[in-house]
Model the fold of this input.
Amino acid sequence: MNDKVLELEKVTKRFGDFTAVNDVSLSIPRGSIYGLLGQNGAGKTTTIRMIFDIIKPTSGRITILGASSALDVRTRIGYLPEEKGLYKAMTAAATVAFFASLRGLSRRTAKQRATELLERYGLGKFANTKVQALSKGMGQKVQVLCSIAHEPEFVVLDEPFSGLDPVNQQVLEQLIRDLASRGTTVIFSTHVMQHAERLCDHLLLIAKGRKIFDGTVAGAKGTIPRRVLISTESSIEPLAGLEGVAEIKPAGETPTAPGPRDWEIRLRGETSAQSILERCFQSGIVLRRFDHSEPSLHDAFVAMVGEGK
Amino acid sequence: MRYTLLIALREFGENAKTKGFWIGIFMLPLMLVIGFAVSNKLSRAEPARYFVVVDQSGAFADSIEHSVEWAHQRSVLQALGQHVREHLRAGQDPAMDLWPNPAAVDAFIAAGGKDAYLANLRPMLRDTAPEFKEPARRFVRVNAPVALDSTASASRILETLKPYLVGAQRIKVDGADAALFAALVIEPDAVEGATRWTGEPAIQYWSTNLAVNDLPEIFRGGFNHEIRRRLYAARGVEFSTVRDVEGTQVRIGSFDPGKAAGTETVSTADRIAGNVPLAFVYLLWMAIFTVMQMLLNNTVEEKSNRIAEVLLSSVTPNEIMMGKLLGIAGIGLTMVGAWLSTIFIGAKLYQGPGAEVIGPAIDAVAATGLIPMFLLCFLLGYLIYAGLFLSIGALCNDIKEAQSFQGPMMLIMMVPLFTMIFVNRDPHGTLATILTWIPLYTPFTMMNRAAADPPLLEVAGAVLLMISTALLLLWSAGKIFRMAILRAGNRPKFAELVQWIRGRGDA
Done:
């Protein structure tokens, strides 16, 4: 059995003169939670639509669960699109059952599964409520359930957290973990780096249609140098000559009034933050802040997207 | 096919739950029943209308009274005929003319009216037959208001009567106040001036209600009778002889050479059946128009609510389209089936006035090929219009945009309604022929012409045209649907649409 659920080989999609996705290749291993990150308009949704054979690539090849078209394996895959939409006049249970039956479940099993899922995720009371009467968050939960009711091997969730309150975001995070624990491969796209950081084994970062990073979360963080952030009113000149300091640059906004200023000190190799702190004390630099925490995924994202410009 | 059927079942199920569907199902039968009951009730509940006659000539009082009475007796005979037809025992034949033609009315009056007729007819009626109720008099002559000087000039008389005629004053009828409906003023020289077409008319009818024509017609009958009697007398001709001769009723037998030998006689039921295509055209139009609204709304909903993308990840655009077509066709057929069943069953069970004609007319319709033709025209017409409406639905971002297309489409669809009478009157004429070959109108025109046996070649050609148009439009709709259903923002230009249809778009 192929351990890759999805493979893209040099996939490009053009709309007229505009290239939405440019020569993207990727390979997603079975059982992983894969984050698809990128700014608005980066090409995430276009990539996903090509994966599901909703639109055709201009060039390149896509293999999903060993098939060349998602429609050939439609009973084994699930999809939550970015733009959420449901039939307003249908009840929550009928909606989940309908989409589950479109994914291959018998109508009877689909109905049973819909009832179970709605119950499990706190919507049991609303099973016979029309979608138009549900809150936005509840509607979104219903749509997520539509994409997983048939217990797919591979699920793509496009911006699943948008529009959800923090409590429901946690519920959805748990749902994604549950899916992964059952062996389902999950791809989700998001703007919220905390979700990706907490959930993903692997990340794919796209900017302007191009892949700019494909690897683990740790790998992403490793793409930016280790640094120390300090805040001081003193001159930082004494730090510039240190052997372990690669670069010192202002961090954040340039202050307009006299007062402490933020600096980012990039470190070379194995230089320890402790040595920078000692040098500050020795040089009489009065510190308001000394931060040597690991860079976040957000920092890595901003850095990589910035470099990609 | 499984996915197409799932989509079709959803479309059918969800649309069958809408109020619009059930209103559509019940509206037509309900309108028929209400329309019939209300018109029946209203005609019976019509109030008595009072009129005054100021006859300064002294020549017409009797003839007008006779004419008003004659009109009333005609309505009595008409109601009696209906009563007898409704309650006649099986196998009984009244052997008297109960249709309200002039000779029959004269005979009815001469025989002594309803009491005399009922004495003979009652034994022929079923035991359960209720008592015959004579219809109320519609027009009643009343005395002029006391203040009126009947010798004054016509203008003075009208000055007195005007407040009564416009409702400012009420007349007294049996001690109670009542509205004066009309006034008839006959000037002294009316006998000589009755046929005068220049200057002031010698006979003047005044009323604010111009819609009720019966009363002036009754008056005209009375005047004509008296004037003609005088003219015949002046020429030495006995008027009663003239009346006898004028009462002669010629009977023309109608036959249809297209019917089987021995059954060529054209009955009233046959005549009704001959007009049935008009009703079928109307039903066809209503059915197609109703289901097109549903198809358009559903397609726009799927696009504007972003449902299309989820669907497209599970099924192909063609499966969605075919599912929608099947589901909505099911809705249309259910609606049409309900209408036809209601009409047929209702007509069969109907026992009221005209039942003796309606039943056979329905049998005559059932015996023709009109119903299969109707179903064929519905299905092909549905597919043709579905191709158009699906494309429009896929191209519109929301229902508002779709409504801007509905206006022109509605106008295009109204043409068969505007022209159906003319096509029915001349089913092989130029208009009928031209409309037959305009694909959007072919279903309606062929339905309209169906009872007139159009040439077989023309029928085959029209069916072929409908099938090929439906296929072409659905094929194009499939292309447009696939490209447009996920597209948001500006609608594509015409050139872009052509590119899509030719398979050169970016998707």
Observations:
- The CA atoms of residues 321 and 478 of chain B lie 7 Å apart.
